[in-house]
Amino acid sequence: MLDIIRPGDPAYRSVRHVYTATGSPAAVVRPRSADEVAAALGFARESGGPLAVRSGGHGISSVATNDGGTVIDLSRLDAVEPLQDNLVRIEPGARWGDVAAELSPLGLAISSGDSGDVGVGGLATTGGLGLLGRAHGLTIDRLTSAELVTADGTIRTVDAEHEPELFWAIRGAGANIGVVTSFTFRAARVPVVAHATFQYRVPDVASFLRRWGETVEAAPRTVSAFLYLLGDGVALATVVVTDADAEPALTPFLRVAPLLGRHVQLTPYASVVTATHAPQTGQQRARTHSGLAVHLDEPVAGRIADLVDAGFGQLLQIRSAGGAINDVPPDATAYAHRHQNFSITAVAAPGRTDFDAAFDKLRPALDGLYLSFESTFTPQRLLEAFPPTTRQRLRAVKAAVDPDDLFHQNFPVSAH
Ligand SMILES: Cc1cc2nc3c(=O)[nH]c(=O)nc-3n(C[C@H](O)[C@H](O)[C@H](O)COP(=O)(O)OP(=O)(O)OC[C@H]3O[C@@H](n4cnc5c(N)ncnc54)[C@H](O)[C@@H]3O)c2cc1C
Fold first, then answer.
1. Which of 102, 190, 376, 415 is deepest in the core (most CB within 10 A)?
2. Which residues on adjacent β-strands are paired with residue 317?
3. Does residue 122 have its Cβ closer than 6 Å to ligand 1?
4. 64 in contact with ligand 1, CB cutoff 6 A
5. Which keywords does this Swiss-Prot/TrEMBL entry list (predicted)?
6. The domain made up of 4-73 is a member of CATH 3.40.190.10
7. Per residue in 133-143, pLDDT tens?
8. What does the DSSP 8-state code read for residue 351?
9. CB 92 within 8 A of CB 121
10. Nearest CA to ligand 1 atom 6
11. What is the position in ligand 1's atom list of the atom closest to the CA of 118?
12. pLDDT tens per residue, range 307-344
């Protein structure tokens, strides 16, 4: 029997909201198997109203809850099972911090992101730009097969031999295609990482960014680096190196700008990405925009500096891409952005609609976007996430497996 939580049930409070939004669904179904996911889809169809699919509830797009509809909450499907040959079967409701904790004692890791509370399902169906990205690729690049429940309730195994088009599509646009109930990844051998944090004084954002960008691009691919511009002339960087002998790779980062603080430790990857499992109450409501860039050169750095000066107050993050991520051909996965070296994300309070116009001034200098960091789905944003040939191919896949467009909640390729 399906586990269905409705308003008034004691557990309702703990399942109605997500990290980035509050919600009032009529029913939250918590399946324990792929068969139950298929049954939950049937239940949602019969019930009518909106549908939401939820894994870890950390979607920036805030569509993993709704008002008056059905939420399929995959949190009970949270197994992490190491197999042989560094393969690992992981269910979508697991959090990346839990995955890292399970794999670290085996000397293994899968690059995910900078937050251990992010769910496996949402991230592993869009990309996964993480702190091992330049060394080991996007999360989706380590996927060898998946179990997928499509709109008609069919449970399919998708990999390079079986249903290759579906396998291509779920690596970048999974939310359009169905519900992934199990992922098999090939983990990388990562016994230890050097985890460095640098706090910089940044009197001039544009020139700092140019130097930062050059330093990252010149670094060996064992280095991945995330930068957080905090405003008030301060930036914080996390740099992860997959070599135990990290000093040569880290030294150039000491020279990017005057340092206010620094810390380096050799540690298992699991201590870099930890899960808190904090209750979700819509505590992180925000307006978020994303863009990718090949270099942090003058047009990009100057416009980011203008955005910082405009003072939207929350956060501007720049993540390294490149390295192993760009070894993958653009048509190998539905995430097509394989020549950019940086991902830029700006976050503002939800009420700041003037933020959209400010970020739009940066967009002409950008090159595509990563949909997991964008909270608006206008036609232009869709085109930036899925370039024309990718979008055309996705629409063909979708027409075959989801002709009624059941899965249209998150960056819907069928729209417009
Ligand atoms: C604090 C924070 C830090 C982050 N850092 C990073 C980072 O460093 N790198 C990075 O790449 N991303 C990062 N992200 C973005 C993150 O990858 C996405 O928001 C992702 O969607 C979250 O996954 P989830 O399972 O928690 O989300 P959910 O909110 O549960 O799901 C988001 C959407 O994904 C789809 N979906 C979820 N599960 C499935 C499934 N099993 N099958 C098919 N579709 C599904 C649904 O449309 C759902 O609405 C971060 C997000 C946050 C909030």
1. 190
2. 228, 345
3. yes
4. yes
5. FAD, Flavoprotein, Oxidoreductase
6. no
7. 999 999 999 99
8. T
9. yes
10. 113
11. 26
12. 998 876 678 999 999 999 999 999 999 999 999 999 99
